[in-house]
Amino acid sequence: MKHILFGLLNEDMRAVVKNFPYEINYIITNGNGQNDFEGIRVFSSIKLFEEKEKVYIFITDLSNYVEYAKQLLAMGFIEGKDFAGANEYAYNQWENVEYFADTFTVRVFHMAGLISKDSVSVMDLGCGTQKLKNFIRSDIDYIGVDYTERDKSTVVCDFNKKEFPAYRVDTIFVSGCLEYIEDVEWFVEKISEHTKKELVLSYCPLEYVSDIRERRKIGWKNHMSMTQLNKVMQEVGLEITFGEKSIGSNVIFHYGKIQGGGYNELPNIRHAD
User: Fold this and answer.
1) Average pLDDT, stretch 87-103?
2) Please, are residues 67 and 37 in contact by the beta-carbon 8 Å criterion?
3) Measured between alpha carbons, how far is 37 from 22 in angstroms, rounded to an integer?
4) Quick count: other Cβ atoms within 10 Å of Cβ 55?
5) C-alpha pair distances (Å), 121 with each of 80, 168, 186
6) Can you give the pTM of this predicted structure?
7) pLDDT tens for residues 1-60?
8) Straight-line distance from the first to the last Cα atom of the chain, in angstroms, rounded to the nearest whole number
9) Separation CA 4–CA 52 (nearest Å)
10) Distance in angstroms (rounded) separating the CA atoms of residues 259 and 271
11) For all residues of the chain together, what is the average pLDDT?
């Protein structure tokens, strides 16, 4: 299997090249190309027809992910099976890379829109550079939590050491973090205990990155389908009310706080047109 990058020859492409955990065989671009980029050969998309059964394609231009996906679908490739977004390689190796791509900001922006209008307090777990603060009302109490101090206000917790902040808030917000949690059941139980109203979450499920070996190479600690994720949430009293495919391989979810457990079927996930 050959690993191919597809996108513009820009800083996003350079970040993926830098952080990719295995060999990149070549790069595909729709723009006016060049013979190589960062020492890697560059071709037009026609090249893909020559090796259709032997490649996995990672889209690096995530702000235009939908257009690239449409192009690959028209060529006969299947999302998840043959291609996915490369945003995980742009920023999710946070302890070593500390790179937060614009696509991360885009996802946080869309997720912020799921916060209830009457929420007056938000706790951002795995807050990173605290992009969320740019997209919430100024009168909302914001608590940023991360494994390292981002500023003087950061609450420092290592979730994999069973550390969790001692606050109860209306909304808990988790973007680009759940994949790295070793004990998911403990983590979501703590979320349920500490949210009064809701959880806004992003997660990359098995439906979009199904190869466990590849998930482990990225550094992810758990591997759930959307149905499995929903069941875990239901068991701690969080009921899914919304799900939508985001850029790359992520799905964004809204869960409301309910009483008791039980299990309901996952509602349909909206996909980008």
Assistant:
1) 47
2) no
3) 17
4) 20
5) 36, 9, 22
6) 0.63
7) 889 999 999 878 888 888 777 789 999 998 766 688 999 999 998 888 887 777 889 888
8) 29
9) 11
10) 30
11) 84
DSSP 37-61: ETTEEEE-TTHHHHTTTSEEEEE--
How do residues 203-246 score in pLDDT, each as one tens digit? 999 988 888 988 888 889 999 999 999 999 999 999 999 888 87
Q: Strand locations in 117-267, DSSP E? A: 121-125, 141-146, 155-156, 169-174, 195-203, 238-245, 251-257
Query: CB neighbours (10 Å) of residue 53?
Result: 6
Over residues 149-155, the mean pLDDT reads 90
- Distances in Å between the Cα of 217 and the Cα atoms of 21, 25, 211, 220 are 7, 17, 10, 7
Which residues face 243 on adjacent strands?
Answer: 253
Residue 173: which region, alpha, beta or left (left: phi > 0; alpha: psi -120 to 50)?
A: beta
Spell out the residues 6+ positions from residue 137 whose beta carbon is closer than 8 angstroms to its own: none
Is the pLDDT reported for residue 112 higher than 70? yes
State whether the Cα torsion 123-115-261-178 is positive or negative: negative
Extract the tokens encoding 56.
């996995």
Dihedral angle, C-alpha 153, 91, 175, 210, nearest 10 °: -150
